[in-house]
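Structure request: Tyrosinase copper-binding domain-containing protein, Stephania japonica.
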Amino acid sequence: MSLSLLATTPISSSLSSKTPLHQTPKRVPTTSLRANNTITCEQKQNVGPSQSIDRRNVLLGLGGLYGATATIGNQANAESGGPIQPPDLSKCHLASDDETGEQVNCCPPYSTAEVHEFKLPQGPLRHRKAAHLLTPEEIEKYNAAVAKMKQLDPKDPWHFMQQATIHCTYCNGAFDQKDHEGKLLQVHGSWLFLPWHRMYLHFWERILGTLIDDPTFAIPYWNWDNPNAMTMPGFYTDKSSYPFIYNDNRNHDHYKALMDLGYKLGDPNPRPDQYPEVKLNNLRKVYNMYKETLGKPRLFMGAPITAGETTKEGAGALENMHNLPHQWVGPVEKPYHDMGNFYTAARDTIFFGHHANIDRMWEIYSIMRGHKLEFESKDWLDSSFLFYDENRKVVKVKISDVLNIENLGYTYTSEVNAWRDVRKRYKKERLGRKRSAKEHVQLLPVSEFGTEPRPLKEPIRILVQRPKTSRSKQEKEDDLEVLVIDDIEYEHGQHSSFDVFISKPIEGLAGPDYGEHAGHFNRLPHFHIKKEHHSERKAQLELGITNLLDDIDAETSDNLVVTLVPKQGKVTIGGVFIELQESDL
Ligand code: C2O
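Returned structure:
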């Protein structure tokens, strides 16, 4: 993956530097993110059989680092498999808010509705714009649309609260998976995350447009990956001018503050003199996320899940990152309602601005990959969900229906990606600071993780063996080097997070600081998989580190020093290892 590919702005359609020998299935070739009404509504998928890579093969060739069985994240068990099916509407039950311990009713008000097939919408292309750049007229229109939604009959499926409750339905366990009793339908922590939220936003936007009779109506996105928008866009916090967009259940201390993507609950706001550094670090996190995951969609999008499966929860890098603004907007004290808890998150209009940005970031990822399909598996493409649409029908939507946003009738305005050339700046400003020769550096002994799970109460510093050293440029393009933090256990009613840093050992010893930030694990309350609360599946965090190792000149090291730094919640780590994963580009 060449760096020039990363340097493209979202409007240009870049292609992979490697031309595949055979025609790989692609999404409909979109020529640009701009208006283009000539694209046919027929979406050719041309999908082959499930082709998930057997990670065991990759690992066994390396001489088993952590124990082969522990590294296979997603093998299906005997009676499970296949795409996730839409729920049986008549079998909705109480969901739970584990943060408060309450049982909550998140059932949709259409338990007997007839289910229709989803059809792609017709009509003009809608342009989603950056929230901080909306004109007063556009904000006014948005406020008016939300006002109509809030003034409907509370039992109307279009009502604002009914719409907000859909998020609880699919996250807090209002339905068992069809034909898999006891296994709850959950759209977070896997490859369902991005497509499900795209569907959710689509219908929210269509309904708002219908309510104000404007087929061009598009929701704004909170462009927080841009240094000019790392604060809450003003209209979300302007109660007197936009009372219907406004929501009070938030951390009011953050109304004018700069968001640090390294935030944990209770951290003080950055001071103005720290802004340049916070912005640079934020941009670098976004840049690294793209750079380290382009060749391996599961790292960006999340790990596979199939019907009935109870394997490890594996949120991708974008979902992990997305949890932070949730937490940062939400109240600092319990209960973390609204944005800080999945049960209530969509009661705040900023949820939709935040998720439109997440959706846009997925679209940018897709453009960077030349629109190569992220997963060819039918288990992904045919997974489907039910939504109540803008024509007052319940429709069944498949993931393959929503992979082309222009076919769905919308696009994003083309803001330049502020993070696209941050690497040079970061290298110069941060990594370039050499220690002076006289500086006394104290080195610390460091050992391997061991075989027992370890509670993450204080920083854990360990030596981790690499599968291969001194990899050539070609080898790095063929296989991504991935750091796996395995069998993570955490409490589901709380915020849980930790940071991961990497450094190069100095003659087998660890240097005085943690090294470079490689990624983070971050979870909100709450995350339901099974009805019995205490047997939730464990989580796994996979972080691409190929480029990071170049940045710290560690390509020739046999081992790396990995430091896990606890931030929030009670977390236990099962193991840490490094493996190679084949790139699909
Ligand atoms: Cu369904 Cu931002 O989460």
